[in-house]
């Protein structure tokens, strides 16, 4: 049987390799009780070496904050560009799509150059202004309350239009993707609008760099199994990628 120090070393190495761990899995692997692993995790959290969540642990604080779009746009730029280019390859002739708010979704809009007609329903003011100058794209800008942090709209006025629309695809940027907690956004009103967008779309495609995995925002959008496709970069841990695919989500890694 491993010593306490050896268990702690094993736990931290597993976290570093996989990006998250489950209490039940570690207990089984080390042939100890759940209570023992919970005590280990509590000790390691007190040492600020990990963060505990219900039934699992992550190497960093999983809770996200509402970061200004202008700051987000300067983060993970190469990864976002590759994700955006992969998303463009999913566009079909005469598509009608929704582009939600967020820096990765806006990067996707920057890469759009459709050969045939494309209708875009946009939550972002910046995205709408950008696409209004692109050939073959018709833009429908949502109305509503403008969020200064994201330059996008939220609220009942933004949601009402979806009573009369059915779109082929929703391209959704998020603040957190967690195996247990699902897909989240840091703003609860934006998360509520995202849910309505999903209901108005035949497919939901998440555009997210790998740093969002294991993170949790304040507003829950849906459980992970409600998502059709996730496009992310190669920084996603293998164990996380496997868990996502096991939930029936198509995973595109760029």
Mean pLDDT: 91
Secondary structure tally, helices: 10
| Unreliable segments of 5+ consecutive residues | none
Task: Give the C-alpha Rg.
Answer: 20 Å
Number of strands: 15
Q: In order across it, which strands form the biggest sheet?
A: 6-5-4-9-12-14-15
Estimated structural class: alpha/beta
Q: What distance lies between the first and last C-alpha atoms, to the nearest angstrom?
A: 41 Å
Biggest beta-sheet profile = 7 strands, parallel
Beta content? 15-25%
- The secondary-structure element order is HEHHEEHHEHEHEEEHEEEHEEEHE
Shape: elongated
Helix content: 25-40%
Structural summary, described in words:
This protein is an alpha/beta fold. Helix content is 37%, strand content 24%. The protein has helices at residues 4-18, 23-30, 34-46, 69-72, 77-88, 103-111, 125-131, 156-160, 188-199, 238-246; strands spanning 21-22, 51-53, 56-58, 96-99, 118-122, 137-141, 145-147, 152-154, 167-173, 176-178, 182-185, 201-207, 219-222, 229-232, 250-253. The strands form 4 sheets. The chain has a 7-stranded parallel beta sheet, sandwiched between helices. Strand 14 (229-232), helix 10 (238-246) and strand 15 form a beta-alpha-beta unit. Helix 2 (23-30) packs across helix 3 and helix 5 (77-88) crosses helix 6 (103-111). The longest helix is centred in the first third of the chain and has 15 residues, at 4-18. It is elongated and about 65 Å long. The N and C termini lie far apart (41 Å). The model has no long low-confidence stretch (mean pLDDT 91).
């Amino acid at each position: 049987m491993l010593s306490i120090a050896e268990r702690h070393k094993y736990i931290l190495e597993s976290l570093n390799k996989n990006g998250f761990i489950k209490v039940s899995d570690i207990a089984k692997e080390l042939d100890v009780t759940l209570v023992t692993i919970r005590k280990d995790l509590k000790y390691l959290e007190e040492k600020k070496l990990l963060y505990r969540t219900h039934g699992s642990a992550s190497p960093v604080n999983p809770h996200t904050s509402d970061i200004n779009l202008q700051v987000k746009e300067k983060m993970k730029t190469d990864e976002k560009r590759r994700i955006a280019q992969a998303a463009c390859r999913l566009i079909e002739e005469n598509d009608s799509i929704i582009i939600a708010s967020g820096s990765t979704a806006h990067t996707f809009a920057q890469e759009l150059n459709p050969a045939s007609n494309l209708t875009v329903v946009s939550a972002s003011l910046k995205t709408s202004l950008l696409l209004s100058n692109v050939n073959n794209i018709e833009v429908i800008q949502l109305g509503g309350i403008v969020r200064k942090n994201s330059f996008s709209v939220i609220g009942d006025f933004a949601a009402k239009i979806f009573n009369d629309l059915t779109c082929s695809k929703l391209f959704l940027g998020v603040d957190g993707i967690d195996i247990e907690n699902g897909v989240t956004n840091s703003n609860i009103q934006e998360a509520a609008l995202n849910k309505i967008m999903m209901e108005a779309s035949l497919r939901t495609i998440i555009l997210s760099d790998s740093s969002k995995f294991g993170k949790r925002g304040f507003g829950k959008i849906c459980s992970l199994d409600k998502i059709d496709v996730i496009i992310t970069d190669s920084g996603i841990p293998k164990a996380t990628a496997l868990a996502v695919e096991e939930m029936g989500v198509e995973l595109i890694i760029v």
